[in-house]
């Protein structure tokens, strides 16, 4: 019996694992939609399908995510009874009202995205039945806010009503959503906020009031928000605000963003009570006369990030500017007119500095005291009219890992410039009209991992002379050469042998019309290749360079001139798991279906084809509203009546006759309606089951259902056997007892 029991348990486990493989439990799917599993959850993707109404009667009751984004739906009716939908996405439609009847009975609903519609009315009781509701997105709707509570939900934690034309928030607005931890009110013309409007939100941790045209803030506006950690007030007109009082009760505040808020001056005690402040952003304010030392005071002892970018501080930064902020790790001074001597004195008390950004500061020279920055890891001196005196000044930065010298009008970089920066990992020289590179320029950068030379006017790819001749740069894995008008040789390798370890290569927008088969002969380790925005065509041998890239995992061929593509091109790329073909003028033919089957059956994952179905970023809170799909075009506009294509294995059949009248189709829709026979002979189990049983029945049995039946039968048989053995043993025991008595 132990063996039988173990066998049954094994069969159950196998069935459950098999049942959730994304193919076996094929659930209901509307004709206009693409359905698939995301992990173990059934996703119904009806986005951008020209729907005018929700296909209620075709939905599976077990749908986890329903994506209706980008359609023409004007109203919502009630969903089927007992539907277990967790996430509803219906952004960018034409809804005008959110009624309770539409969401009645949606007990499992957790997230709802109604953004980008024309909604003016929201019933406060709309989500009353959704007792586990956590996230509501209503941004980008012209809401008409009336008096009284906005919504009723005791569990709601995330509410986004940004850009909703809200001009006033009444005193009862948040009364029935007091569990909010994240609130986004940005981009609403609020102008003013009444006292006490946030008093019930004592659990609030994050508040976004960016770009709300606020002209003032009352002194007690945030007094009840004792748990607030993140406050965004950027893009307002808060010139006359009494900051010591407004921020006085926010003792737990860690992040404060006042970017571009019309602030022209700050008192010495502005942040005196913000003793836990870690990040302070004051960028893009006209703080011409800012006394940095007085403003920071003695209270910002925990400050690690300070952003003063583009504040147009006209006076020299004093030597005491950062004396009380010795814990600073990240300092942003870009966009302020600075002089090297003043900067040298001001930065002296910051030995812990790890990131220093001095872009667009008009610097012609750099401070002489870089030797004090023993921990400096990142330095941005881009967009400055620098002269070639870097060797002596930057040499002390032994730990420097990131250096950005991009767009600094450099036409020549001496061969000794980087000779002492042996810890360098990421070097950016993009945007300089270099034309060519000096011999030995990158020779000593033996730990370099990323090299960016985009838009440098380079005619040739990196040549061997820029590196040491007999040294392979083992750590150099990423090179970006996009935007250079490269000349591609008709034969031979494009890069030298020193770069044999490169795995990520960007050659986008390089005016490439063809690549010879040996172009990457010295770079056979490439895993990620970006060829987007070039002029590659669907000609014989045009993609022959792929044959030697056996380690290729990702390739971007988007926005080229490909009209057809064959999966046989990738036969030598067994590790390929992402192929981007979006933006090519593909013709709708059976090659599209072959590529689809290759991804779905051979690679085992449609996500290999970027744009074939919804990605994770499309079905999460704040996800993409208008995703990019793979499209093809019929050779001519035509009307074709197609009956349900049940005879084609591996294709989901239509339940109604179809008429095609669109020149452009997504790959998902074309493959389903094309009737192209799969060229892959190893079909999915669900397809085999459908062929055997579908033609004789109006419904389809899944393989998992059959296996479950087998399990039920096995368990029944096991129960009978165990019961029989139990009675047999009982009778045997009684017989032994009687025999024993007789013997006595």
Automatic annotation (TrEMBL):
Keyword Transmembrane helix: yes
Keywords associated with the record: Cell membrane, Disulfide bond, Ion channel, Ion transport, Leucine-rich repeat, Membrane, Repeat, Signal, Transmembrane, Transmembrane helix, Transport
Record's bilayer topology term: Single-pass membrane protein
Name of this chain's protein: LRRCT domain-containing protein
GO biological process, one term: monoatomic ion transmembrane transport
TM regions (residue ranges): 699-724
PANTHER family associated with the record: GH08155P, LD45603P-RELATED
The organism's taxonomic lineage, starting at the top: Eukaryota, Metazoa, Ecdysozoa, Arthropoda, Hexapoda
Domain of life of the source: Eukaryota
PROSITE patterns in the record: LRR
GO cellular component, one term: plasma membrane
Localisation per UniProt entry: Cell membrane
């Amino acid at each position: 019996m132990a063996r039988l029991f173990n066998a049954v348990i094994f069969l159950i486990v196998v069935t459950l694992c098999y049942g959730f493989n994304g193919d076996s439990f094929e659930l209901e799917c509307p004709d206009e939609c693409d359905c698939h599993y995301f992990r173990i959850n059934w996703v119904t993707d009806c986005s951008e399908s020209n729907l005018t109404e929700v296909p209620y009667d075709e939905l599976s009751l077990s749908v986890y995510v329903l994506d209706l984004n980008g359609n023409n739906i004007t109203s919502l009716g009630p969903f089927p009874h007992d539907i277990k939908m967790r996430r509803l996405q219906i952004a960018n439609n034409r809804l005008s009202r959110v009624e309770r009847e539409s969401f009645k009975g949606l007990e499992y609903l957790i997230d709802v995205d109604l953004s980008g519609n024309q909604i003016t009315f929201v019933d406060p009781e709309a989500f009353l039945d959704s007792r586990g509701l956590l996230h509501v997105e209503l941004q980008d709707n012209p809401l008409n806010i009336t008096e009284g509570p906005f919504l009723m939900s005791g569990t709601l934690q995330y509410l986004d009503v940004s850009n909703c034309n809200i001009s006033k928030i009444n005193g009862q607005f948040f009364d029935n959503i007091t569990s909010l931890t994240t609130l986004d009110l940005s981009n609403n013309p609020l102008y003013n906020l009444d006292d006490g409007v946030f008093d019930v939100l004592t659990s609030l941790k994050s508040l976004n009031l960016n770009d709300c045209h606020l002209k003032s803030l009352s002194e007690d506006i945030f007094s009840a928000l004792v748990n607030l950690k993140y406050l965004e007030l950027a893009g307002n007109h808060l010139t006359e605000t009494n900051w010591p009082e407004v921020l006085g009760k926010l003792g737990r505040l860690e992040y404060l963003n006042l970017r571009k808020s019309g602030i022209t001056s700050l008192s010495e005690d502005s942040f005196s009570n913000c003793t836990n402040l870690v990040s302070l952003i004051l960028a893009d304010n006209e703080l011409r006369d800012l006394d940095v030392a007085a403003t920071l005071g003695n209270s910002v002892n925990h400050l690690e990030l300070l952003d003063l970018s583009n504040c147009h501080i006209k006076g020299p930064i004093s030597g005491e500017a950062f004396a009380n902020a010795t814990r600073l790790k990240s300092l942003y001074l870009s966009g302020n007119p600075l002089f090297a001597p003043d900067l040298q004195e001001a930065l002296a008390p910051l030995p812990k500095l790890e990131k220093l950004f001095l872009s667009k500061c008009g610097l012609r020279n750099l401070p002489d005291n870089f030797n004090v920055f023993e921990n400096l890891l990142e330095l941005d001196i881009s967009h400055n009219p620098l002269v070639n005196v870097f060797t002596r000044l930057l040499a002390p930065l032994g730990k420097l890992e990131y250096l950005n010298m991009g767009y600094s009008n450099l036409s020549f970089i001496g061969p000794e410039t980087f000779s002492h920066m042996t810890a360098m990992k990421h070097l950016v020289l993009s945007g300089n009209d270099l034309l060519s590179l000096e011999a030995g320029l990158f020779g000593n950068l033996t730990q370099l991992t990323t090299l960016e030379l985009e838009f440098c006017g380079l005619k040739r790819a990196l040549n061997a002379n820029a590196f040491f001749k007999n040294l392979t740069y083992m750590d150099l894995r990423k090179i970006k050469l996009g935007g250079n008008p490269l000349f591609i040789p008709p034969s031979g390798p494009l890069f030298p042998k020193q770069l044999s370890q490169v795995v990520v290569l960007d050659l986008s927008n390089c005016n490439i019309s063809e690549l010879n088969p040996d172009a990457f002969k010295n770079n056979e380790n490439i895993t990620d290749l970006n060829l987007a925005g070039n002029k590659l065509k669907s000609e014989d041998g045009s993609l022959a360079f792929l044959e030697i890239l056996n380690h290729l995992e990702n390739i971007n061929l988007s926005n080229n001139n490909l009209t057809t593509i064959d999966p046989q091109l990738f036969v030598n790329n067994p590790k390929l798991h992402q192929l981007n073909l979006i933006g090519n003028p593909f013709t709708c033919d059976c090659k599209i279906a072959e590529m689809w089957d290759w991804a779905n059956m051979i690679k085992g994952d449609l996500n290999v084809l970027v744009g074939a179905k919804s990605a994770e970023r499309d079905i999460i809170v704040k996800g993409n509203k208008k995703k990019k799909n793979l499209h093809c075009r019929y050779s001519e506009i035509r009307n074709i009546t197609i009956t349900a294509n049940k005879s084609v294995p591996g294709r989901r059949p239509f339940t109604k006759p179809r008429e095609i009248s669109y020149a452009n189709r997504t790959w998902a829709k074309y493959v389903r309606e094309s009737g192209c026979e799969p060229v892959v002979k190893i079909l999915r189990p669900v397809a085999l089951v459908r062929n055997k049983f579908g033609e004789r029945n109006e419904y389809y049995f899944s393989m998992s259902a059959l296996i479950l039946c087998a399990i039920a039968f096995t368990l029944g048989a096991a129960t009978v056997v165990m019961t029989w053995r139990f009675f047999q043993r009982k009778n045997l025991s009684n017989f032994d007892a009687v025999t024993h008595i007789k013997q006595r």
